[in-house]
Design goal:
It contains 9 helices and 28 strands. By secondary structure, the protein is of the alpha+beta class.
Length: about 500
């Protein structure tokens, strides 16, 4: 369905808003609650296509939201979200307060020099303490209005919908004071918020138009890659022929995958940017004595950048300062035979994040003696890389899938026993098979028999069920079947 262009006259574009905050504080829930306020009944199911952004209409005014990821290791993706946005919504859980990723989000918002609106979420939960949250924010240099500052604060519950309308009203009010002028007839400028290689369709590039008009048939450039726009799809999955300032769309037409955060310009524009992502990049540790060569593959360009940023951070830290990382090649898409040959010729290692490794390619890699590791969670990838850079393990060795120490025991009214644990390595997930030892599993010999074998039934953070817990984080663990002899000081090992 094509938009009606005859009546379109844009002097100001819709504000672009990104939502940041600590994991589990409710960023996704708030975005979902906002979607629901904008549609009627069953229509909510129609807005399910994830393109990295979506647009709503509130009080006859449009607002565009960037749906950025929440994990700490994806700080580079969250950082580009800050650069793309006009307003940052900082989500803080009322029952949890300011946490490490909250501080990180504050830093990104400040560095992007954009106004911040605080959304104190989960005000309906037991243990909610709004004043404590405001005090914690003040410690981080964020003063809300009723504490004498200029940061607007809205109390919300994504679960009940309380305060969501007020939050949208606030965003429109804050947007009134922002320079959001745009010219639909001006020079095209868009920003890439997601990019990935689809096995059937090819390169899919999600962008938000910030100025000008993007039309089917346009010749555009991003990351030094040219494309003729073959199709445009909006956030509801509908085909459109034009996108105007503030509109999020998916572009089909690029043969390569451009970089997340880069600009999209009309071919021939004086504002064109060169690629920020060279294939062969070396990151050198300050005490570098050894170079590790990597071929890096990921499912999306934003993920690729985030993984590279995480690895670069390790090299820059004391953990990996005696090593250098050489990225032989980094791109989106599944691991291929050419990736294996490149790693073989340079004695490199292949790392894949959320990509497919077919049996044929795996066998070929083994025949060429090329180490290949694929990951579904950033926890495992970073842990493996850290071990490698510390020199405590080689990638060929068996890695720790998940290890946790039991700190406390809690009994629920249902009679279930919850083990309060801290994850020491790897990650814990529901349904994983585990063994329990009385001593640190690193000291266990083949002759040692586990005290218990079973599986993880549930992972809890407060009253909420969660799907994964990574290294250095705490959680509650329910086992199946129960282990009556479970005690403080024991260790859980994923097997």
């Amino acid at each position: 369905m094509e938009k009606n262009t005859s009546a379109v006259q844009i002097n100001r574009r819709p504000p672009i808003v990104t939502v940041m905050g600590h994991v589990d504080h409710g960023k996704t829930s708030i975005l979902d609650a906002i979607r629901k306020t904008n549609v009627q009944g069953g229509e909510f199911g129609g807005i399910t296509q994830h393109i990295g952004a979506y647009q709503i209409t509130h009080n006859n005014q449009k607002i565009t939201f960037i749906d950025t990821p929440g994990h700490a290791a994806f700080s580079s993706m969250r950082s580009r979200g800050g650069k793309a946005a006009d307003i940052v919504v900082l989500v803080v859980a009322a029952d949890d307060g300011v946490m490490p990723q909250t501080k990180e989000a504050i830093s990104h918002a400040k560095s992007a020099n954009v106004p911040m609106v605080v959304a104190i979420n989960k005000i309906d939960k037991a243990g909610a303490d709004v004043q404590k949250v405001k005090k914690d924010l003040a410690t981080e240099g964020v003063l809300v209005e009723d504490w004498g500052g200029d940061v607007v604060c809205v109390e919300v519950s994504a679960q009940t919908g309380q305060g969501i309308t007020t939050l949208l009203d606030t965003l429109l009010l804050v947007a009134e004071f922002q320079p959001l002028n745009a010219d639909i007839n001006g020079e095209l400028e868009g920003i890439i918020i997601e990019a990935r290689l689809d096995r059937q369709k090819g390169s899919l590039v999600s962008c938000i138009v910030k100025n000008g008009t993007l039309s089917i048939g346009d010749k555009v450039v991003a990351s030094n890659f040219t494309a003729k726009v073959r199709s445009l799809t909006d956030d509801a999955g509908k085909t459109v022929t034009k996108a105007f300032p503030g509109d999020p769309v998916v572009i089909l037409g690029f043969k390569e995958v451009p970089n997340v955060g880069d600009s999209i310009m009309q071919e021939g524009s004086e504002l064109l940017e060169l690629s920020l992502n060279e294939d062969r990049v070396e990151i050198i540790g300050k005490d570098s004595k050894k170079t590790i060569a990597l071929v890096l593959k990921a499912d999306a360009q934003g993920t690729l950048e985030a993984v590279k940023a995480s690895l670069a951070e390790l090299v820059g830290s004391s953990v990996g300062s005696s090593y250098s990382l050489k990225f032989l090649h980094s791109s989106t898409g599944d691991i291929s035979e050419s990736d294996v040959m490149l790693a073989h010729n340079t004695k490199g290692i292949i790392i894949g994040f959320n990509v497919r490794l077919t049996a044929a390619i795996e066998d070929f890699a083994k025949s060429q003696k090329v180490p290949v590791r694929t990951y579904k969670t950033i926890y495992e990838l970073v842990d493996d890389a850290k071990d490698l850079l510390e020199g405590t393990a080689e990638l060929e060795e068996k890695k720790i899938k998940g290890r946790a120490e039991v700190l406390k025991l809690f009994k629920l009214p249902s009679g279930d026993m919850i083990a309060g644990c801290k994850v020491l390595a790897g990650a814990l997930k529901p349904n994983l098979r585990i063994a329990i030892y009385a001593k640190d599993p690193s000291e266990v010999t083949p002759d040692d028999v586990p005290l218990y074998r079973g599986a993880i039934k549930k992972l809890k953070k407060g009253k909420d069920d969660i799907n994964v817990v990574g290294k250095d984080n705490e959680c509650g663990v329910l086992l199946k079947p129960d282990f009556d002899a479970l005690d403080k000081g024991m260790f859980i090992e994923v097997v």
